[in-house]
Amino acid sequence: MSNEELENYETESQMALYNEYKEVSDLFSYIVETDRRFYLANKVEVTPKTAGDSLYFDVTMNDVWVWDIFRKSRFVKSVHVYSLNDVNVEEKSEREDLTIPDMPDFPPPS
Fold first, then answer.
1. How far is CA 44 from CA 7, 8, 53, 73, 103, in A?
2. Rounded Cα gap, residues 57 and 37, in angstroms
3. What is the pTM of this model?
4. 5, 55, 61, 102: least CB-packed within 10 angstroms?
5. Cβ atoms 45, 64 nearer than 8 A
6. How far apart, in whole angstroms, are the C-alpha atoms of residue 89 and residue 40?
7. Cα 1 from Cα 39, distance rounded (Å)
């Protein structure tokens, strides 16, 4: 396999993964980012823990989709992750709940 063929394969695989993400994202309530992976989940629990002077995060997720190009199946019943770095958890808002405020009328510039 040539370098160009390998690059094309990786690009196509990344695009397929992104398209899958767009298709399944509405099925999940949370977006979770760790230093190693990106997840979609319907239940998330993050527990800060200490070991000596070190702080780490114990993350448990249920009903999960894993952003990983090398997995055959990205849907997982539960995931348990330990992270020494930050863990970002976002609750997705429903589109119906999202309201964009009206912009005030500004006088035209003089």
1. 35, 35, 26, 20, 36
2. 14
3. 0.76
4. 102
5. no
6. 10
7. 31
Distance (Å, rounded) from C-alpha 105 to C-alpha 23?
38
Residue with tokens 């119906």: 96
Beta-bridge partner residues of 68? none
- 66-90 residue pLDDT tens: 999 888 889 999 999 999 999 999 9
C-alpha separations of 64 from 22, 44, 61, 67, 110 in Å: 15, 9, 7, 10, 55
Token pair in block for residue 101: 């405020």
Token match 């979770």: residue? Answer: 32
Per-residue pLDDT reduced to its tens digit, 7-25: 888 889 889 899 999 999 9
The C-alpha atoms of residue 3 and residue 81 are separated, in whole angstroms, by 34
Between β-strands 88-91 and 38-51, what pairing exists: parallel, antiparallel or unpaired? unpaired
